[in-house]
Amino acid sequence: MKWLAVLWLALWLAPAWAQEPAGACTAQMLSIQVARGGDDGRRPESAQWQTVELPDDWSARWPGYSGTAWYRIGWRRDCAGGAAGQVALALESVVMAGEVYINDERIWSDPQLTEPLSRSWNMPRYWVIPDALVRPGENTLWIRVVGVAGQSPGLGPVYLGGQWPVLQRYEDLWWRHRTLFTLNLIVSAVMGGLCFCIWLMRREQRTYGWYALMALFWVLFVANVLMTSPWPFPNSLMAARANIMVLVLYVACFCIFTWRFGGQSLPRTEKALWTLVAVLLAAQAFTPDAHLADMQLLTVLTVSAIFFANCLQFPLHALRTRRLEHGMLAVCLLVFFAASAHDLLRLMKVIDSENSYTPFTSVVVTLCMSAVLGLRHARNVRRIERFNQELADGIEQARIELATTLEREHALALVNARLQDRLQIAHDLHDGLGGSLVRMMAMVEQASAPLHGQQFLSMLKLLRDDLRQTIDSGSSAGVKVPATPREWIAPLRHRFMQLFDELDIGASWRFPEQWHTPPSALQCMALTRLVEESLANMLKHSRARRVELELRQPEPDRLELRIEDDGAGFDVAAVLRAGISVGMRSMHTRIARVGGKLDVASRPGQTVLTATLELRAPQA
User: Fold this and answer.
1) Per-residue pLDDT at 2
2) Per-residue model confidence as pLDDT tens digits over 266-291
3) Can you tell me the distance from the alpha carbon of 184 to that of 191, in angstroms, rounded to the nearest whole number?
4) Closest of 586, 546, 596, 580 to residue 566, by C-alpha
5) Angstrom distance (rounded) from CA 498 to CA 473
6) At what angle do helices 236-262 and 358-428 cross, to 10 degrees?
7) Beta carbons within 8 Å of 538's beta carbon, 6+ residues apart
8) N or C: the chain end with fewer CB closer than 10 Å?
9) How far is CA 584 from CA 155, 471, 540, 547, 572, in A?
């Protein structure tokens, strides 16, 4: 609650602060006169004085004159009740440099009263006049002004009176002539730097680059308003040339910025603009000093016309596009147009006005233009985010469609494998069971004596085993990979060991306990068919007495299946070249289809089949 009490006390005491103290003194101006001074700064003779009114510009009175002028202001202090008291003095502007005397006593002087001159043209001054300098009755205020022709040389308004009214006037002048321009410079510099950084990150956003360049020239132009030192220019005319050049470049960049912002394509207009800019810059650089004032006036009128024309054409463009950011910028430009037109007419003394609106509106317009750029940037960011979201959704949809396609292709591959297995079963039925039936029919027909029942029973058992083998061969593999190698080989081992026991064939089954990398369902099915086909061929043709099956994984991504028997053997090259073995072709095709390789080596007493598969690690 303490801050509330302090605020209430400040509000209660505020009227007392603003009031003139009791018994305060005021000052009354009696006369204002001016006369040329000597080159050495001496005051002129009495006959040369002329009566003037402030503010005063001696260009009309003394055309082409550059040098010193003395202003003599007679005044008298008035104090209530005859009491003594101090009075204050405030100067709005001294164009270009000067010094101030109270009754022959100097109270202030610019550091540079010769070229390069100090720049007090936009620098308010304030003093409290000591009682020791004030005489009874009439006093004289001497103000020496050193000016340059063509730069509106002279003296601005002078305020003499009580301390509080003059101080308030001085603070108002300081706010309008210094603070507002300082705020404008800071805001313009910050926004220009921000836009420059955006342009550096995204070079295709040229609107921000032109805004940053425009802000740079505007900051230089405003800095000329605030500078009181002549550095870095050797004289006032050179500083004036540079200031006009900066103004020309600012207006050119301002036009390009608005055209880029509005999406306007004006190649011929831009070419003409830059040609005119080059001409104006060359004219400012090379015009002689005697004609510089006329050339500067012509340049200011030309760039002002370009500026006003651009401020008027953009609202028409905004009406056609009907976009929010274009409308906001159009409103800003219309406000800027009105303020700039008023101040230009005031500067040219076409209208009589004490107020200058550019310092006020420039800050507001700069913030408004920054808000417009911020709105456009936010809209672009939202568009980018929306595009990224749409892109992510599209990628997800494509991923789902790809997964569906792969799943469908996998299902088709399984169906095709089953169809191939059925075709193989058909071949097995035709070649295996059909051949056995034909041979047995031939044995019965050609037998010299009727066959005994035991012989018929043995033949029927053989047919039963062939049929069971063919049926089991078509249904032994599923789409799910067994958890271990031994779980995979168990059904095959159980079925064939019954035949091996009846035929007194020794068998060795060496299979690891775990998969390092499990094969796929198609690979597992192909290996199953390979084992079935190779063992069936051994039973039919090789007359082997021992068979060995071994499964190895020498590397995590490779699987080897080796089947060896001690049968009669056969000529592998002749069989493959003749193409008469359906089973051999089937085994090669199955293994190659799943990315593997089958090697067959055979000689009397040893036949070895080696199947090698390349495995892939399962994906998460």
Assistant:
1) 36
2) 999 999 999 999 999 999 999 998 88
3) 11
4) 546
5) 15
6) 40
7) 544, 547, 565, 567, 607
8) C
9) 117, 20, 13, 18, 9
User: Over 203-229, what HEC string results?
Assistant: CCCHHHHHHHHHHHHHHHHHHHHHCCC
Burial of 431 (0-12, 13-18, 19+ CB in 10 A): middle
| φ and ψ at residue 352, rounded to 5 degrees | -105, 105
User: Residue holding tokens 């990628």?
Assistant: 395
| pLDDT, greater one: 441 or 147 | 147
State pTM to two decimals.
0.61
- pLDDT tens digits for range 196-245: 998 998 888 898 899 999 999 999 999 988 998 888 888 889 999 999 99
Which residues have C-beta within 8 Å of that of residue 414, sequence separation ≥ 6? 479, 521, 522
CB-based burial label for 42 (10 Å; 0-12, 13-18, 19+) = exposed
First to last CA, the chain: 64
Compute how many other C-beta atoms are within 10 angstroms of the C-beta atom of residue 464.
Answer: 11
DSSP character string of 328-355 = HHHHHHHHHHHHHHHHHHHHTTSS--S-
Report d(CA 523, CA 515) in Å as an integer: 13
pLDDT in tens, 350-386: 777 777 777 777 677 777 777 777 777 788 888 889 8
b/e map 361-385, b = 16+ CB within 10 Å: bbbebbebbbebbeebbeeeeeeee
- The first and second tokens of residue 137, run together, are 């009755």
